[in-house]
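Cont'd.
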Amino acid sequence: MSIPLGSRLKIRAMIHVAAEPIPFFWPMRTFIHHNPLHGLEHLPFEQAVREGAELFHGNAFLPRRIYQSYLAAGTVERDVLSTSVSRFLESRESIFGIDLHHWLTALMTLVDETVTRPRTFAEVADIGAVLHGNELHNTDTNLEELKGYLRGKLLGGRPIYEAVDALYGTEIGKELDELMIRSCLDFFDEGQSVWGMPGREQGLFAAWRDMANRNVRFYSYGRHVRRILEQDQRPEGVITYVLEQLGVPERQWVDYFTRELARLHGWTGFVKWRATAHHYHWADRFPGDLVDFVAIRLTTALALLRKHGRRHGNELTLDGITEAIETRTAEIYLRYEMHTGQALPVMAHAIDQALQRGRDTEIQNVLGEYLRRKTHQEAREQCGRLLALTEAADAKPALLQLSEGDLAQLLDTISAFEQQEGMIWLRALEANAMQRLLDGLDTSRPLVREKRPFAQALFCIDTRSERIRRHLESVGDYQTFGIAGFFGVPVSFMELGKGCETHLCPVILTPKNLVPEIAAETQQDAGAVSALEKAMHELKESVLTPFVTVEAIGLLFGFDMIGKTVAPRTYNRWRRHLHPEKPFSRLLLDKLSREDADSIVRAVQRAVIVKAVEQELGLPPERMTDDMIRSLRESALGHEPTLSSAEALQMDADKADAFIKRLRTAYRINRAFADQQMERLGRIGFTIGEQVNYVAQALSSIGLTEQFSRFVVLVGHGSSSENNPYESALDCGACGGNHGDVSAKVLAQMANSRPVRRILRSRGIDIPDDSWFLPAMHNTTTDEIKLENVHLIPPSHLVYIDRLRGGLNAASRRCAAERMPSLAIGEERPMEAGAAYKMARRNAMDWSQVRPEWGLSRNVYFVIGRRDLTARTSLHGRAFLHSYDYRIDTKRRLLENILTGPLVVGQWINMEHYFSAVDNERFGSGSKVNHNVAGRFGVMTGNLSDLRTGLPSQTVLKDSRPYHEPLRLITMIEAPFEHARKAVESVVSVRNIVQNGWLRLLILDPETGEVSLFEDGGWQKTQLPSHETLPAQEAVLS
Amino acid sequence: MQAIGFILVGLFLPLFPLSILFNTVLRRVDHALLRSALLLTWPQIGVLALSLFADEPPTWLLIWALATSVLYAFRLLAMREVGRWTGFLATSAWAALWLPASAGVDPVQLVLYAAAFSIPLIILTLLARTLEVRFGAAYVGLYGGLAIGTPRLAGVTVITVLAATATPLAPSFFAMLNALAVATPISAVMLAAAWLMWSWAAIRLIQGLIVGAPQPGPSQDLNTAATWGYSIGLVGLVLAGLILMGNNL
């Protein structure tokens, strides 16, 4: 059987649509913070979290008791809650004798547990009866009601094996997930395994198909797999066959795929990302996509169902399950209750026995008794929770006086309220956070500087920069700015000695320009230690040698372990001395001319030809002349019909032809490859115009267009930690999860270029000759700021460098003193700066440290405006700060750029932290302690699990409570209202997330002092109490 | 007379199908203390009857006893109700006592062996009662997460289950070792198979009760006094086993 092209395309389209709600998962080498519900961002936040919670089986809000602790700690205002309760009650009818406002407030603030929970059978009359100590009104078995309940639970897009598991406790789903994970680990491995899966070049489905026919792992159901795979060669055909066999109607296929994909959403996200990644080596080499993934999953699922089918009769298709519900309702219901763990324990044995015996009368009897007890229990539990509420509200008599109708209305009101309660707490927390931000703002007119500052420093907008900027400003005459850590220059970087490219920009951008790193001095040999390390690695990775290696040299690892554990700082410092230092290097930043590129290609070709002649003809290089090489090259490229140097090379015509052919094929000296090389070389560097634009845009976007200091320090950032698969999550998100020092070097090199400055001057940005742009690296784990490319600093500036270093060092130590107490074990106590700095450096080298730093945890604000606004308040490392001066952005282009890139990345980071904090098991990645690296691109919990997406508990929780306060990103733009509103409106992605409530937007109009908050689809305006207006836009520009 | 003696012994050191009587009686008795008394005295009657009325059992009877032990160990794997689980384990363990009895082990030692199996099962019966009070029934796989919800109860339950299934240092462990020491190869294999299945069943029971997510809502853990009581009982059991039985090895 083979399905037509149209059907195949339809399957592909369906799977594409089905995977929409599942976000990408990037390899962890470049950890990308993302919103786990990114695929649902087109929906309003409240609706999306409801759907997301259902799809991923997670919680979208914290438990009530945690919110109550926020209330006790003063981070939630009781008045705000009260107002929200009142607003909720506006749409509800009042109940005679009940002070609903008081009840609901008591519910939120004094009751720990949810009061209303889904009830299957207990009706309000039953609850009323229990409340008044009466008998239940009616406990007759209503089979139609049962059927409806079962249809809802077992059908409707749910994979068939899930229904079978729920009826027979077969655990097919678990087995299927495990087999899928093993297959994915085999195929997607990126060098972790010593022996790779064979045939991966064919693609995921084809390679798996080959393996499935031989694999011992599939032994018990291999016959079924083979039969299924015989139906079609292509994955789409297999998918169609399986779904037809299962009897799933085509209109349900998309939902069905979504449910299948969501079961392993980490792997799905990875396969989805990988299939769309450009220039990803492993994907290019071993292709695989979600269609393959679904085909394998469905094939395995059907095989497992057929294997279990021998015992469980006909319930292996949708029709079979539907029929069973209709004809054997009592049995199916009891089975469902037993195998989903919902059966009343007191009746569990009786149900078990009745199901085993299979006698209809007994089953009916047990069902009758079970339903009576279940109804009673539901009613009793509901009563208990209601009474607990009345105790908290001190209103028990009022509850007992309610009529049945009023009781129903009360339960309905409480249920509706509890569904909205998470949003009410969230809004209250956000209101408090917004107020704190506004209270700390300084809207007074900035003082006019008489002289330029000693140094200006551009930091990443990252929340960790807020602290060090504040401290740097406090230790001397420093002015700081916030800018996205890639400094606005998307770069594809090729590191010295490495053949792959690293994208240094937010993942939403794709860099066009390649910047290779070139050694500026002779590279040293790898050295004995490196060679030894390589040998050890190979011994460890081989199949048999580890047995011998452990016996022979295992003790050496013991010393290593002791050193790393007992004295990590000293030991690591000593170890570093064993390795040669990286040589001085420069970045190839200027665009190559066509002639330059051509020369490079020629040089490479010449070198290859010399090598080829030496290897193929045995002629040593010293006997090669330039003429010989030229003629070989020209012949290989087809410029010369015959090889003129054949005689000199002692070759006859046939041999010469054969060698030329080999040069073309094996050594790739041919025109097509030369063109390809020329194209690649064409990507290297930036034209002068591009450099000018990037520098102008970077400086303008932060409002730095005049009063340049002697030093303009461009501070990239990154982290350093040991034994930490999440290390890149602590690096610069704006640099695609990499260190930011290269981006700093790129912009510094551009801004120091004389031709660039000359053109900039003509555009009104006059950088004085004595201003030097100096790249630096902020290590966020140790707080250290290290100046880079110091050897390039002009001699005239060297006398000031010690002062600069001193200032940076003082800021680092102060920053550590502020930050480290929250990382210490036990209660937070103030620390002395020296001790804190030392502890920070130890954290970076301690391989047992699961929390080297807090990273971006507790992020809550994104401020786009002048630094003066926030300079006089501590934002405790919780704010992304992007410098911006609307007065030099009349066309709003700079603001739009900030919104498009940095703000979107900030929102992803914020949402990643939000969901990892509210449900760390489902949306986060659980504890790091149980993590194992999978295939070198992800982590799993234990030896086999879904790829863990999100952040580990050590990043967002402290002592099992959220350290990160889960709030939506509170974004404030300092600009005239219309100016900011129009910018937001013009960036569609940002407009959508604002309108759908994925972030909270405030606009502070500096000309009127008015603050506008976007809420409930409109703008709410308030006036800042103390405000000095900035000079109007026109006045500044004139 | 000899046959009647073996039948009598077969009722109290249960042989299938006579074992049905013990399990039926145990199922009918609802009171935890009565069940405990039954668990303590039933095998002792068997040991007494063996010494009074029966001579050395023939080999086929020994194989039958061990087959009974294996059968109940196998049934234990699928049993989820803790009360019946206790009864099956008791049946399986007591049936295994035919092995040392046939090897002529001192009746006093046999009394100790029987007690070594009974005492942890009595503790388990009391714990099952605690579970019934808290959750409505002591049933595996319906509510889990005791380790998180009620850590003391979980801890005591785990140690008791391990002691009941002859895990090292429990007196039943020494009883099993002594039995294996006098076993023929075939009976040793049968006994080891039963022992293996006890361990397997114990893990399933622990997995179904202790691990996983706890039940929503507040749950009442063992109080301090009860925890100390159970702990002292278990430690005392281990010490008594080491002193009275460990030195026989």
